[in-house]
Amino acid sequence: MNKKNNYRWFVLGIGVLAQATFAMGFAGIPITGILMRDAYHFSLYELGFVLGSMGLGVAASEIIWGILTDKLGDKIVLTLGLWSSAVVFVVIAILLTPEASLGGVKSLHLAIALAIAGALGGSINSSSGRTIMSWFDDSERGFAMSVRQTAIPVGGAIGTGLLPSLAYTYGFEVTFIVLAATGFIAGLIVVFFINSKHTELKHAVQSALAVPSPLKSFQVWRIVISAGFLTVPQMAVLTFGGVYMRDVLDIDLASISIILIVVQLGGGILRIWSGYYTDRKKNRIALLKYYAICGGIASLVLCLMVNNTYMGVVFLMLTGLFGHAWHGISYTEAAVKAGVERAGTALGMVGTTVFIASFLTPILVARIAHGYGWGAVWGAVAILTFSALLCFISFSKKKEPLTSIGQDNES
Q1: Which of 110, 288, 344, 402 could connect to 70 by a Cys-Cys bridge, CB 3.0–4.6 Å?
Q2: Where does the Major facilitator superfamily (MFS) profile domain lie (predicted)?
């Protein structure tokens, strides 16, 4: 029994490894943007198109991978995602790098390749999440899923530190080969050390058709849509927080880097605490409401104090922290509402809105900042963050009132 109990934590560790492996490329490649622009001779428009393509690929494939995870099992889809995206990185290294191409690389070709890598690697989000859902019961799922979600900023931090250095020192050919190698190695670890509960779950359910699809569940869709709104403050801070601090607050680049690293690390810690707390209190929806309110207020104060250096930094950090904190409990709640046997589909639905918002937020911020200024940017972020509350208006009011954050209520 102890071995079985200990094994689920080992499974969680492998899920974290797989998620971090994907995040290395997803978050690390954009950090090489300055080097990529010079090496590939891309215009700023071409560079933005290329760097956004991987997120588009993920958004386009998330629900499909979620459905396939429920049908084929998490181990098969997780391995397939890691290895197939690694193959695409090998192809990019061979054909679509400045070192490998004699005639130059067109932005469209590289964008398509990265979109395919994102579409294939996006399978890791649903499959690793379903693995955790199947090995942990509801008393620990929030904590386990939050730990898994923390792998994204951790993997992103590794990619942020590693990939630009590789690209600068050895070129993009080696950079993409390293991404491919990590994907292949992570896939081997999954093959040899993960035991899937897919067959066991299929036998436990009389008929998979008897379980309603999350795609038809209004309860699941409200969580899914709220996740899209709650992604806005996170991405606004991560993508343009540095530009705002540099242009408006006149903060030096070293300090900006430290501030954004603190936001990501603090956000990861807050994710883990949120999962642990809601496992004990059974109040995931209530805490999601509080994060929407707190994130919206922080953005609104930032809007009003946009030119004040001290207040600007403090409330930018708070906006980013609240924008990070909700991930684990939102994914968990959607999967719990759907049921373990349909968890892959539900996780894919959440991932779709998260990555769509991740793609659209920088575009929205750039347009508003250019046309109306940074005060308008943070005002818009506040409005969109508050909009998440609309998804919870009639969510089990008797079971989860907003004042229930410290009480033991049902999720």
Answers
A1: 344
A2: 11-399
Which residues, 6 or more positions from 398, have their beta carbon under 8 angstroms from its beta carbon?
A: none
pLDDT in tens, 277-333: 988 888 889 999 999 999 999 999 999 999 999 999 999 999 999 998 898 889 888
The amino acid that residue 37 corresponds to is R
The H or E element spanning position 186 is helix 172-193
What CATH number matches the domain at 214-399, 2.60.120.560, 2.60.40.1670, 3.40.640.10, 1.20.1250.20?
Answer: 1.20.1250.20
First to last CA, the chain: 28
Pick the CATH number of 2-196 from 1.20.1250.20, 2.60.120.1680, 3.40.50.10490, 2.40.50.140: 1.20.1250.20
Give the pTM.
0.75
With tokens 């990501």, the residue in question is 264
Angle made by CA atoms 226, 228, 230, in degrees to the nearest 5: 70
